[in-house]
Amino acid sequence: MTSAAAVLAQAVRTGLVDASAALAGVVTVTRIDGSNPVLRLARDGRPVAFVKGTGEAALLNGEDTVARERAVVSRLAASGTAPRALPQGTPHELWLSAVEGRSLAELSQSGDVGALSEAFASVGVALAGLHRLRAGSSTPAMDLPWPMRDALPPHMHSARHHEVPARVLETAADLADVAVAAKAAWRADGWAHGDVSATNVLVGPDGARLIDWESAGRGDPSWDLAGARVVADLVATGWSDLAWRRLHAAYRAAGGPAPEPAHALWCVRLLVAAYQQAVGVLVGGGTPDADGSVTTLLDQARRAAGAHRRECAHA
Q1: Which one of 88, 105, 219, 224 is at 20 to 30 Å from 4 when CA atoms are compared?
Q2: Which is it for strands 190-192 and 46-52: parallel, antiparallel or unpaired?
Q3: Segments of the chain scoring below 50 in pLDDT
């Protein structure tokens, strides 16, 4: 990944920021933690651009997330759905236009329930706008979620050496029949973001915008709704049902076409969320499941699996 100094030099050289501002120290380049390395270029505290590279996990999997996200945002450029790719980019980095706003994670910490409720409605509108777009044959196909695959991605093999991520994988193995059903019902017939989370949604004056498009492509839009439902559970503590209903009503009112996720798909999304939660805390130096969040997600996954199995028994 390019260094902060190289990003600043490139931004000055291409006119994205002026040299005088850089010399005055009002231009900053800050590393943002995530699955892929991201540098935030800002002037006077306001973002100007984001520079993304490919992380170690993606490299281990043989994935080029820079090329993939560039292809996605280029196809979405005319719709204004995603940030724009900037010409400063290279084959190994993607420069993206800045998106104004605060993440749902930040809004949840503010304690402003009214603002957060409005934010969930705007997320529904944003997802409807994406899902209404036509995904043609040239649209990159979204990868199947890992519980639906025949083999785990290479970067997940080390998870077996850590107690909490290993417990997620063991639970997924116990629910393999449900993942098979979710795969059979998977509808790769529309645009899907693929990784709707509390940190990947920014809410600004003009509503919600989605960021981090490296997982996006032609997939099942219901997967995004399942992700949004997980976000409601994690962020709107104590009133998640209301937050979800607000989001879903706004989604339908804006012409969102995807059906609500079936129990099998919901189960798989909860397994993915549990793994992300466990590994995210582990990478950050914390103790996974110290707050019981992973256990809660796995319990929800088991309940969703039970509901799916009962449906099958009565069919």
Answers
A1: 105
A2: unpaired
A3: none
And the tokens for 167? Answer: 């417990």
Pairing relationship of beta strands 38-43 and 94-97 according to DSSP bridges: unpaired
Instruction: Assess whether 84 and 109 both reside in one domain.
Output: no
Structure tokens at 132: 């209404």
Report which of 270, 127, 144 is spatially closest to residue 210, judged by C-alpha positions. Answer: 127
Q: Do 162 and 70 reside in the same domain of the chain?
A: no
CA atoms within 13 A on the CB side of 75: 22
Structural domain including 257 reads 102-314
pTM to 2 decimal places: 0.94
Q: Are residues 140 and 210 in the same domain?
A: yes
Same domain assignment for residues 21 and 163 = no
3-state SS track over 18-65 = CHHHHHHCCEEEEEECCCCCEEEEEECCEEEEEEECCCHHHHHCCCCH
Cα 224 from chain centre: 9
State which of 97, 123, 140 marks the end of a domain.
97
Q: How far is CA 119 from the centre of its chain?
A: 16
**Domain check: are 231 and 131 in the same one?**
yes
